[in-house]
Amino acid sequence: MSSRKVDENSKNRQLDEFREDSKDQFMTTDQGVRVNHVDDSLKAGFRGPTLMEDFLFRERMTHFDHESIPERVVHARGSGAHGFFQPYNDSMKEFTKAKFLTDPNVKTPLFVRFSTVVGSRGSADTVRDVRGFATKFYTEEGNYDLVGNNIPVFFIQDSIKFPDLVHAIKPRPDHEMPQASAAHDTFWDFASLMPETTHMLMWVLSDRAIPRSFRMMEGFGVHTFRFINAAGKARFVKFHWRPLLGTHSLVWDEAQKLNGKDPDWLRRDLWEAIDMGDYPEFELAVQIVEEEDEFKFNFDLLDATKIIPEELVPLRPIGKMTLNRNPDNFFAETEQVAFHPGNLVPGIDVTNDPLLQGRLFSYVDTQINRFNSANFAEVPINRPVVPVHNGQGAGFMRQTINKGKVNYWPNSLAEGHPKLASEEEGAYVHHQEKVEGHKVRARSESFKDHFSQATLFWNSMTEPEKKHLVEAIHFELGKVETIAIRERMVANFNKVAPDLAQRAAEGLGIEVKPEMATETTGNFAKDKASEKISEGKSVSESPAVSMEIGKVESAKSRRVAILLEDGYNHDEVMAIKQALQSEGAQAKIVSKVFKNLKSSTGEEIAVDKSHITTGSIMFDAVYVPGGQASVEAMKKQGDVLHFLNEAFKHCKAIGASREGIDLLLASDVAGVQVAEEASADIVSDKGVVSARAAASLDAFGASFLEAIKKHRHWNREEKSMVPA
């Protein structure tokens, strides 16, 4: 097997064959013929008709006419990055024979695609939506795809309902609205009639659905899979990606404004972070359940609408993924990468989860539709880093040139090559699970509980998180014009938690009517599983599902706006910039126009962003340094005052030193204390940090950084306080 050894650079080396750099090269046709003019077609006279013999025109136009492929039906808008995965140690050998998970000396190359689900390729990044989190590992045993989302559960239990779900959530077929949004009658009509969606709805209505960054977003395999070790013993496994920067979100007002100010916000954030060397890192962790413990919980492990609470099965960290290279070409890599949950390697297998079972068919089927060929695996981004010998010698857009006269097996003319491998030689062997039963179109009663984990989710939220979830209900269902749909949903929420239903109903102008709740749909039957799980383990809440409880506090890669005009205090700016950079934060100078600003002592500094091109919504924190002339000029600028008010409204850290405090006092920032007296020590109140005395600048910087690390300061979240 040594000939199949790969490392983090193996995929990069493989792609080198397909890369092209046009520097110092001549323009040519597709056949390599050099051309001298591409501005005019070949004509019969200067004002005559174009000639059919113009092969250059026909080639260029034909290629342009056919250069797109159908976008994905779901997950159409995506962003990708290259990287590698490395296990921490060999502790997983006990559970799986998958080599890329068990050898700490191997850095397995990979490609990740993050995506929204509902919107088209041209939709905005920061809509409220599930986010795809798909990873292709180019292992020495072949490609393995972990195709998941940033939410650990899904809307439906059986994949046969997937067409209905997508039809309902997509724009209406009559007028093709709304784009990239679930806030319309057809989706909520479907959801209100399908109570199995309730748990997923709780996650989608939470802040999880508006991530601050792809770099600050968890990922989940969603389904229960199997690990198989070298001895053939199987165990159930759930996959989790945990961002080392922590899991953080936007606020809804911020997300909506970013849709207009920069609809590519998440894509740009990922690209720029990698470009600057702030490589996103994610820890891969697993939950492992022994086969004999399959029915020890009060939910079914095969039900994709359920999580295994971490209080019942703790996470085991097994390795880290680092994303360290942007794609060279968006279409060739990010758009053409094709994932499939059935791309497995020895040591990992599927389960009978009926949602997963359907995905094993549909993912291949949809790629064949997109590429109009079964040869999509030969596209460079999809190629394994190990040799492929499969006897598939034809098909549209075949790229591999197979030698020899044999493309079948068994054969004698090629001496039986390519030969079959044994399990010991690395062949994939499916887990021998005993399966028997009648052919039925039904579900086990173990899938029938649709509300208890939705209740668990609600119970696990902090009060700010509950507040945001309720506000999301008010927005989403407020867009629903059919009152009966609103009533059904509120009645369903009443089964989750009466206080949730009451708070939701108050913002929708309806009464809580429990009798309107939708009865559980589906054809259920009692079986062994439903009998066993009835007395299984459960918890009433799980702090691990909260983004606020136990959140990671870090300033690394955070973006801080420094508001300046001519006459700023240079020493203060440079001291705080240095303090921010020492913690890995990115400081940007924001001013009215692009120019070099002059300090009160004659130094100059370049402006990074102008007010017309940016806003507080594009930063994690704001700093206003001293400098009397700078502050007085900014007091007269509505954009500056709005910048501060909006940052305050969105609960971000705000810092001000010396005369910079006067700008805070001139704004509508309210409900906090600041250092107003000339001799005042540092004042830090609800994420607003201020210091009048120059001697306390170092301590001010440290205090400001602590405020930034908290991400948001929800204790000042009262929008009526600030008109932004």
Automatic annotation (TrEMBL):
The keyword Hydrolase does not apply. One of its GO terms (molecular function) is catalase activity. Residues 525-535 have a biased composition (Basic and acidic residues). Decomposes hydrogen peroxide into water and oxygen; serves to protect cells from the toxic effects of hydrogen peroxide. Belongs to the catalase family. HPII subfamily. Gene3D superfamilies: 1.20.1370.20, 3.40.50.880, Catalase core domain. Keywords: Heme, Hydrogen peroxide, Iron, Metal-binding, Oxidoreductase, Peroxidase. It comes from the Bacteria. Signal peptide: none annotated. Heme binds at residues 72, 113, 162, 359, 363, 370. Its cofactor is heme. GO terms for cellular component: cytosol. The active site is at 75, 149. It catalyses: 2 H2O2 = O2 + 2 H2O. This is Catalase. Residues 1-23, 519-540 are annotated as: Disordered. SMART domains: Catalase (SM01060). There is a cross-link at residues 340-363 (3'-histidyl-3-tyrosine (His-Tyr)).
